[in-house]
């Protein structure tokens, strides 16, 4: 173990190696480490933000769904009411129409009856005249008996 | 490998000898392997043939193996981490990037815990120390004979592959840390650094010499303890590996026993090399933190 020039050589080598590490090795590696740390921090933050966004979106979706359900319920309700109304209206119309038809039929019957009665009356007057003529064996002055026959016929 | 021509002592010594390239002075007598003597005419830079030549080279010598393994592992570390740094993605990281990022965050956390100043040098230096020292220590787990044997086939006779078992390597780093400590002490505290050395712990002018002595000893103890702790741990660990390897040539039973010992020691050593690399890093950060703190 003798001290000699090797010591100086090792000192120089040591100094050179340290300087090289300081200039070309250490900064590059620590920079990469710091950048990665920053990237990971950003990533985590983004993930947090995304999580919050997702929560918000879910909340909003739930609200929309509720609203839609309410609207649908309201629509169905309205439709039901309207349907009932329409049925009621139809019923009313049908009743009115029926009544109208019944009234018309009644008026027709009335008219028919009146006409038949008129005809009957005429025929009765005719029959009376004919019968009277047969009985009297002569013609009857119709104008002179007009009032009498009329009175008879109107009692029918 | 303890061959027939090698005693256990020689085997161990061989393993503890570095491959040294250094200066032999003019007039030096070299004992060549064939027994003849060569006298050098002038100063010569050459590979040492034996321990005696290493000793005679003195300060002007380089442990080629230590420095080559140390620089090689350092370059491997920088190449690997630079590759990851260039391709670093902020997306999902790959396996390698993940490992590197884990290391960087671990070192960054340790530095943030112990270092309270603002200095862009400290964390990269801590990372360099931790990974580099760990890699150098890791060479301890390579079987002690493997690389020296392979290289001996290529004609290289001495090879120590664990740089941290070389006190030059550990002290080289410790001294660099020490220089940084002094530099930042002066830069941050200015004159306060002198006051810290002279008026602490006894705040009276009479005690200035005592204070100075105590504080300087305490200051100098730091780089020495830093470098020698790592060296001592790794040297001792390597020594045990060598002793266990020496058992392999002492008969079948010893070899089997040595196998179990080696396994146990290697598993234990995984802990030691990591811990020593970590301690070196943490103490460096703590010492630099103290240099930045103004009292």
Would you mind describing this structure in some detail?
The complex is a heterodimer of chains A (156) and B (295). By secondary structure, chain A is an all-alpha fold. Helix content of chain A is 93%, strand content 0%. Chain B is mainly alpha-helical. Chain B contains ten helices and five strands, in the order αββββαβαααααααα. Chain B has a three-stranded antiparallel beta sheet with strand order 4-1-5. Chain B has a two-stranded antiparallel ribbon with strand order 2-3. In chain B, helix 4 crosses helix 5. The N and C termini of chain B lie far apart (57 Å). The model of chain B has no long low-confidence stretch (mean pLDDT 89). Chains A and B meet through helix 1 of A and helix 2, strand 5, helix 3, helix 4 and helix 5 of B.
Which short descriptors sum up this protein?
heterodimer; A: 156 residues; mainly alpha; 2 helices; B: 295 residues; 3-stranded antiparallel sheet; 5 strands; globular
Write out the strand line-up for the largest beta sheet of chain B, numbering strands in chain order.
4-1-5
Largest interface: A-B, 31 and 51 residues
Question: Average pLDDT value of chain B?
Answer: 89
Quaternary structure of the protein = heterodimer
Summarize the structure in short.
The complex is a heterodimer of chains A (156) and B (295). Chain A has helices at 5-136, 142-154. Chain A has 156 residues and is mainly α.
């Amino acid at each position: 173990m003798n001290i000699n020039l090797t010591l100086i050589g090792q000192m120089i080598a040591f100094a050179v190696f340290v300087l090289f590490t300081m200039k070309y090795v250490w900064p590059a590696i620590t920079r990469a480490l710091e950048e990665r740390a920053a990237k990971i921090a950003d990533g985590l933050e983004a993930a947090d933000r995304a999580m919050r966004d997702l929560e918000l979106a879910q909340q909003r979706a739930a609200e929309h769904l509720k609203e839609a359900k309410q609207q649908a319920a309201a629509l169905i309700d309205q439709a039901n009411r309207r349907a009932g109304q329409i049925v009621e209206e139809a019923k009313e119309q049908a009743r009115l129409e029926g009544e109208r038809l019944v009234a018309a039929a009644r008026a027709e019957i009335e008219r028919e009856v009146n006409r038949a009665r008129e005809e009957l009356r005429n025929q009765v007057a005719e029959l009376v005249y004919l019968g009277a003529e047969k009985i009297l064996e002569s013609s009857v002055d119709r104008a002179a008996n007009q009032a009498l026959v009329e009175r008879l016929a109107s009692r029918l | 490998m303890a061959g027939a021509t090698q005693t256990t002592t020689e085997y161990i010594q061989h393993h503890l000898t570095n491959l040294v390239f250094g200066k032999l002075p003019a007039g030096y007598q070299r004992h060549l392997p064939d027994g003849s003597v060569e006298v050098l005419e002038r100063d010569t830079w050459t590979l040492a043939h034996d321990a005696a030549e290493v000793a005679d080279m003195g300060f002007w010598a380089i442990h080629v193996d230590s420095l080559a393994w140390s620089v090689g592992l350092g370059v491997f570390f920088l190449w690997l981490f630079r590759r990851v740094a260039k391709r670093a993605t902020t997306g999902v990281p790959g396996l390698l990037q993940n490992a590197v990022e884990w290391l960087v965050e671990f070192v960054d956390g340790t530095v943030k815990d112990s270092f309270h100043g603002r200095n862009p040098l400290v964390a990269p230096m801590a990372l360099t120390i931790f990974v580099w020292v760990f890699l150098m220590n890791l060479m301890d787990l390579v079987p002690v004979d493997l690389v020296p044997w392979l290289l001996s086939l290529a004609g290289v006779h001495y090879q120590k592959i664990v740089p941290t078992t070389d006190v030059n390597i550990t002290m080289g780093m410790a001294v660099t840390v020490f220089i940084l400590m002094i530099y930042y002490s002066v830069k941050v505290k200015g004159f306060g650094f002198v006051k810290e050395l002279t008026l602490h712990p006894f705040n009276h002018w009479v005690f200035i010499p005592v204070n100075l002595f105590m504080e300087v000893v305490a200051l100098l103890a730091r780089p020495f303890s830093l470098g020698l702790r790592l060296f001592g741990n790794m040297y001792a660990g390597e020594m045990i590996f060598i002793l266990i390897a020496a058992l392999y040539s002492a008969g079948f039973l010893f070899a089997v026993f040595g196998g179990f010992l080696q396994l146990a020691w290697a598993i234990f050593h995984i802990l030691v090399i990591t811990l020593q690399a970590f301690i070196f890093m943490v103490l460096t950060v703590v010492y630099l933190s103290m240099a930045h703190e103004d009292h």
